[in-house]
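Posting this for the archive.
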Amino acid sequence: MSLTNSAPAPLAPPPPNMTTLKSISLKNIVGAALMIAQEPSSSIKEQLRKKLKVTIEKDIPNLPSKILLSSNFFVNPIMQDGPCCGVVALAMASQMLSNKEITAPHVLQSSQNLGLSLQGELFSAYDMAKLAEEMLGCTSAVLDMRDSNSKDILLKHLASNHPVLVPYDGDANNSPCLKNGHKAHWALLTGFLVSLEKSIKLDNEGITGDTELHSLHHLTPAKSRELNNQIRAASDVFVYGVQGKSRNIGLWSLQSLLASNANLEEVDPRREIETGQFIIPQEGIQRALCNRVVILHD
């Protein structure tokens, strides 16, 4: 009888490192995926086309006598993880500035290091402006929308393809609403849609007619800057907005957005009692967010 030497049984794998498992939690995995910029999908652009059609047909009076001009900078959307809508809005705004793009996790870390935020919340337009300058090396200004020339400055800024950051009350579908500040949220404005009388003479260079929506014309960035006076004088003004709770692009009347911005009177009482979880300005959001808009440029 011959005997064959059998190979020793393989060693059992070591037990998992529980410290490692805890650090790689589902929340961390999901959060990492949410806070990354992603190229706008075809469905996002399709959804915007539908929204444009509805807005043009329902919200612009005397349409046959109007010419519609549109300009929009498509940013890569970033979904927020936790109460960090301002952080995400600033990270998306960086895509509109020359060679300044930064990641949302980097902005979040810096906001905490600077003592402006605990979880990514930004309840002050002045803190947003400070964070933008620190992170992007850009110039910022906080507009008081009660000033007579602030709306003109905002529109001129948009016509120049520069980012505008607006705090507002966000409804369930993320459009502007009036909740007294209890649903305070940050949006980045990336462009505009305006209506002008057809009688206004426009040079066609830099203007492309839409293939489906015949009253709609798209402007190149250079043409948008050239027409900033006409844009500021438009009777119907809508803005394109992105924010961290949806990848879809909003299209809102500027009037409704500024009304929402002007109603930011108080922090949701449920948040105010969560002592130590948020940094809320001592002067209150009525002086730090209400009627305040942040503009950025190189």
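The chain has one domain: 48-297. The beta strands are 66-72, 139-144, 164-170, 176-177, 184-197, 207-209, 216-219, 236-243, 246-253, 292-297.
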